[in-house]
Design goal:
Helices cover 42% and strands 11% of the residues. The chain is elongated. It has six domains: 90 residues, no CATH class; 109 residues, no CATH class; 140 residues, FAD/NAD(P)-binding domain (3-Layer(bba) Sandwich); 130 residues; 86 residues; 75 residues. The mean pLDDT is 94. Helix 28 links the parallel strand 13 and strand 14. Helix 5 packs antiparallel against helix 7. The strands form four sheets. It has a five-stranded parallel sheet, with helices on both faces. It has a five-stranded mixed sheet with strand order 6-8-7-9-10. It is an alpha/beta fold.
Length: 751
């Protein structure tokens, strides 16, 4: 069922794109893993160190004492072993070229902040405030800085780190100065941060949980071990308290929100590949090479399932929210001429496979949104007609008098079953449909035949009136055959029926064959192959299992693909996007072929023919079941596909129903075309019948020119909305040799 666009706009707000990774969420410093890890993966240790330094302020102290909460939430821990972030952080320090702190050339601020306690929380707050050029004074009742660090670490480690990080900053340190009256201190300073440490004085303060680090006294903040934090969390408190202090100084409010420390992202463990953890050297640290390898194990967790799995989003590098914004301004442009073209091609690039919704934790259906946007653009006349013109004409031909058929076998008034092979199966090889129908008639002699297109091209083109007409034709055919159960050979057809003809029950041809224990005489003993599931089979596990069972019965040893079953991806045919975005289509095909060097076994004829066009060895499952073709059969051209459809209808009427067929008048024109040129014409979606029409026009009207260089005639004719050009020579009575042809959308003005 269609979702309303306003519902999508609400749903898009649930997108988890900007949610932090698991480790970033639990890290007291919220270290940006998407910034740190890529730098480590490339061996850019200096840059990685800067990221780490900016997050933690005292890198040596933190890398020494961190309690590693990230290890507990790392998704890798369920597969192999969590990423060793602690050693990676140490490696960034060890191999950085420059460990000197940043120097910020900023004017001093005329605001004073007092910090009570020179432990690590107070010092981290002092350092961050000083770097922002506040006038900072630290009061410490003892004679030394560091507080609880003296119990946890070697002095040379933490004292050297503190000295280095304060190198470029000015602050006042008052040792042996115990603060007795906090109210008096507050009168002299614009804000106060109390970090007196574990068992330190709280001066009677209580936490105000309506603001981050806020106390119940305006202008006084508290944090660190005084508030029950561990040593590393105390450092983070000092850093993040600065945000709350600044807000108070600027606005007088203490309602700065607490930093977010959770995440809603989800990671599917099915797609985590096991990688052995990198072991440290004998001294317990990583070499530079080790650090790079361990960093490469990191998944850089984010809610990017749509980008990783959806071909369209990966190709454009855009998440649903960005797509929604660009599509909205395209459908509802704000330009003066009312012509928004920002996302016209993007809208027409979606394969309509549904994977985006299935992999999204929030079930955001970007594909359905793009489909509805396509319809809106079509209704406004703003969608380029050329994107879908060929496919709509092809659908019209498939549903035309020469090819469409709705028939019950003789002797029956109605049918229990009706075979609906779809328009492409017979176009690929008419024997696929003939053999399948003969098999079905042996099982149930009353099985009707319905040769139609399911209307997918019209839906993908956003042409609702045409689509409604196709659906109504199918419904009438189904009613006229007695409301039979429909037997599908095409998963796209089944999807269209489920969506627009839910009253029609159905089953797949291959499920019937497998349940019927069909005898397969196929000599492919132990040949390795991989079943390629069409994207529209994703919700049909029984069908997928049946095809695999038939393949195994045919003697094949099956090896899985990385994307199959519920994660099946489109072969590039879906949405018929090849005209709108040919480079995208090529990338999709290349990605599908890269999954395996094995021959593929397809049960969608479009998948089979698209892969075969690249030279890939690929069977259709019916090649195996009926022992029809080798895996290297060349796919038919678009002209041959139309001829196959015509032949299919004729053979069913003549050979299966034993009825006379009306003689087809062959064209008087004979074309001589080399195979290479035929393939070129097909790749440009030019039919040989269109070429014949152009040449007949040129010869009949004398509208042609002679190319003196080649001795060939050149002419053109506008057919429908396209102008076709031909280069040819006369080689006999109504016989012509074709040398070249092309088509474009321009009209030629003739005087």
């Amino acid at each position: 069922m269609d979702i309303k666009k306003e519902d999508f706009n609400e749903k898009i707000k649930t997108c988890l794109q900007n949610e932090p990774s698991f480790c970033t969420a639990v890290c007291p410093f919220h270290l940006d893993i998407h910034d740190f890890i890529p730098k480590m993966q490339r061996g850019r240790f200096n840059a990685a160190y800067r990221t780490y330094l900016n997050a933690v302020v005292f890198p040596n102290i933190v890398s020494e004492l961190c309690h590693e909460p990230c290890k507990k939430v790392c998704p890798r821990s369920s597969k192999d072993e969590a990423i060793n972030m602690k050693l990676l952080e140490k490696a960034s320090i060890k191999f950085a070229r420059n460990l000197e702190p940043n120097s910020y050339n900023m004017p001093p601020k005329n605001k004073k902040v007092a910090i009570v306690g020179a432990g690590i929380s107070g010092l981290s707050c002092a350092l961050r405030l000083a770097s922002k050029k506040y006038d900072v004074t630290v009061f410490e009742k003892s004679g030394r800085i560091g507080g609880h660090l003296w119990d946890l670490s070697e002095p040379e480690i933490f004292l050297n780190d503190i000295e280095r990080q304060f190198k470029n900053e000015k602050y006042t340190l008052c040792l042996n100065k115990e603060v007795i009256n906090l109210e008096e201190l507050k009168e002299k300073y614009d804000a106060v941060y109390v970090a007196t440490g574990k068992d330190g004085s709280n001066f009677g303060l209580k936490r105000n949980f309506n603001g981050a680090f806020a106390s119940n006294t305006p202008g006084i903040f508290m944090g660190g071990m005084l508030c029950g934090k561990n040593i590393v969390e105390s450092i983070a408190d000092g850093i993040y308290a600065v945000n709350a202090i600044e807000r108070y100084i600027k606005t007088g409010n203490m309602n700065q929100e607490e930093e977010k420390n959770d995440t809603k992202i989800k990671i599917n463990a099915d797609f985590i590949t096991e990688v052995e953890p990198v072991m440290p050297s004998d001294d317990g640290t990583y070499t530079s090479e080790n650090a790079v390898e361990e960093a490469k194990r990191c998944l850089r967790c984010s809610c990017d399932a749509c980008i990783r799995h959806c071909d369209l989003m990966k190709y454009y590098g855009k998440y649903p929210k960005r797509i929604g914004e660009e599509v909205h301004i395209t459908v509802h442009p704000g330009t003066l001429d009312g012509n928004g073209t920002v996302a016209t091609r993007l809208i027409s690039t979606c394969n309509q496979c549904g994977l985006c919704k299935d992999v999204c934790p929030e079930r955001i259906d970007t594909g359905e949104y793009l489909l509805q946007s396509h319809r809106e653009m079509r209704e406004k006349g703003a969608m380029p007609w050329a994107f879908h013109d060929f496919w709509l004409r092809d659908m019209e031909f498939a549903n035309g008098e020469k090819t469409a058929l709705c028939k019950i076998p003789k002797g029956f008034d109605k049918s229990k079953y009706a075979f609906f092979p779809g328009c492409q199966l017979g176009a690929s090889d008419y024997r696929y449909v003939i053999k399948s129908y003969e098999y079905l008639l042996k099982q149930n002699p009353d099985t009707a035949i319905m040769l139609n297109c399911c209307g997918a091209p019209a839906e993908w083109a956003g042409d609702e009136p045409i689509h409604r007409g196709v659906i109504e034709t199918i419904r009438n055919c189904w009613l006229s055959t007695g409301k039979p159960t429909v037997i599908f050979a095409c998963t796209t057809c089944r999807k269209m029926f489920n969506k627009y003809l839910p009253e029609i029950s159905g089953i797949f041809l291959y499920e019937l064959m497998e349940k019927g224990n069909i005898n397969i005489d196929c000599a492919n003993a132990n040949e390795k192959a991989s079943v390629f599931d069409p994207c529209t089979s994703r919700d049909e596990p029984a069908l997928q299992n049946s095809v695999r069972a038939l393949s195994s019965k045919g003697g094949f040893e099956l090896e899985p693909l990385s994307h199959e079953g519920k994660y099946a991806k489109c072969c590039s045919w879906g949405g018929q996007v090849s005209v709108a975005n040919p480079s995208y289509s090529k990338e999709v095909v290349k990605a599908r072929l890269s999954q395996s060097i094995n021959p593929y076994i397809a049960y969608c004829s479009n998948c089979r023919d698209i892969f075969a066009l690249t030279g890939k060895n690929v069977y259709h499952i019916l090649d195996i079941v009926f022992n029809l073709n080798d895996s290297n059969r060349k796919p038919p051209t678009f002209t041959e596909r139309r001829k196959n459809r015509v032949l299919l209808k004729q053979k069913i009427i003549k050979d299966i129903f034993n009825e006379e067929i009306m003689e087809q008048k062959d064209s008087k024109t004979k074309l001589i075309i080399e195979e290479e040129l035929k393939e070129k014409l097909s790749s440009e979606m030019i039919l040989e019948t269109e070429i014949e029409e152009v040449i007949e026009h040129c010869e009949r009207e004398g509208k042609k020119v002679l190319d003196g260089g080649s001795g060939h005639f050149i002419g053109h004719l506008k057919i429908g909305t396209m102008t076709y050009w031909v280069e040819y020579d006369v080689c006999g009575d109504h016989c012509y040799t074709l040398y070249n042809a092309y088509a474009h959308r321009m009209s030629i003005e003739e005087s």
